[in-house]
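Table S7 (text form). Paired inputs.
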Amino acid sequence: MRLAAVVLCLIFVCIYFKHVHQKNQVDEPDYDEADLDFLKIRDSEIATTVKLMRHLDSSRAKKGDIVLNFQGKTDPSEEIDRAPLPLFTRVNESLLNGPTYKALADVLTIFREDVHETEHWSEEQLKKIDHFLELMMSTNPFKIAWEFIRSRDLAPRDSEHMKSLLFTIWFGLYSRAEHSLGSSGFEHVFAGEKRDSIVEGQHFWVRFYQLEKAGKINYKGYIVARPELSATIHYDWGKCKKAIGGFLVGTSPEFDFSLFTLCFLTKRGSKRCRFSLEKFPFGVTSFKIQRRPYIATTYPVSL
């Protein structure tokens, strides 16, 4: 089983490099909606794993670190701004000085917002990705997630092969716009992307907060509110619109990265991960790119 996991990882890496060097064959990606029911992983197993990850997430916000102002309720089709004020009233900035937050911030600088622009990463930028992945793998939430997916023979057991797998599924480049390798799972989920007049992805609270603080996001109201836990919202990023978007609130980079990795490898497709945070039911919906191992999207939902 261990050998099979290593071979699977090497296949993913080979596919990635083959794809990167065949830019003349770039196509629009299709989401693979096939589920992973054949793995027979129970919701209760995921819930138990996530509960332990949450308990050991020492980098997450403490009570009072974040104050939200949800304001008016809206819906995805509404154009009226129901929220004259920002969503984030207060964030304890010292929280963002933690090593995993800083490493994530460094990685976010390498991406181009427009999916029509091809990504070109320098050696220095690749080092930022490598440092981020090593840091993620050293955290308790990731160790818990990794232990579970290893126990189901869904990931390599050694660190180097696991890091290669993470690089492939999260940073493998593909196209969301014709003839440009301008997207990856990580950029889509953690940074967010612009395609024509719409916002795609952007499912990490710190990214939203920092863009809003810089005056680049206009929050227009909430669709589902879970105070101190999550926000499902409607907003504009510059001239681009996000009809419905959302993220967990106050979680650390390592928790979200580990949670999304866990759910992508165990419960993607038409069936989602299910778990609870502070007794509220949540899920994570994940899809991969069809015929490729890359993350297309993965995002939290309130159930």
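Next pair, protein 2 of 2.
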Amino acid sequence: AAPAQAILASSMLRYDATLMDACPNLRLIARTGIGVDNVDLAAATARGIVVTNTPDGPSESTAEHTVAMLLALAKRLKQGNDNLAAGKWGPRSGVLVGTEVQGKTLGLVGLGRIGRRVAEICRLAFGMRVLAYDPFVPDDAAAAMGVTPAPLEMVIAEADFLSLHVPATPETVRLMNAERLAAMKPGSYLLNLARGPLVDEAALLDALDRGHLAGAGLDVFDPEPPALDSRLRAHLSVIATPHVASLTLDGRRRMEEMAMDRLLAFFHGERPADIVNPAAWPPR
């Protein structure tokens, strides 16, 4: 790896100072996907290493996965599948009684590319009311999307389905703590397909056990992978996938092509798109 000048990076490794120092010729880390929390940006910038991502690449796949989880929770597909596999038939004391999503309220925390697409699908396809909190999106821009901008606490309190679409930062870690989970509408659902540290998992488990929340859809955990004996991953009211929301043939191809575009631009002496540490440009 020492002669490498560029790395086409995924989420599987931690790109820290030790790795960077082992590659003294490294000048570019082209990350597939949106998140760069596995890249030490400060270390990269200090060494003159440019880091890029592909924020448009996984948006459609992740938005579709979010909506699929939302519908699966509402229709109690996991419970129905498990009952049938166990040889059971019928509603079984109401366990399989689901709910319609038409006319329900979708709350979004984060109105970036994925959040906007989720809002569009749920609003146009299902007639859902969409509330959203994003301090970086002007109210008029949100309204132009057919979304009602609202304070965070209002979004949490009024949502029938609350979906998180923000990165893990010092400000968002444990965003959904015990207090905010308790503030959610009784019988509502939480979806987290963003980053595991956004949610206090012990508090979420408690809210599910008490029946305060009807269910949760999770594609991310803290830590990853979750422990084999984690109650959350096997909870009756949880639909969980192993951090694969963006993992479609279409999305993966799109992300890899975009990352290669950044790499080729860099080696042609051009400024690549989507630099996440602009202080490292131009490279030394």
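The domain at 59-240 is CATH 3.40.50.720 (Rossmann fold).
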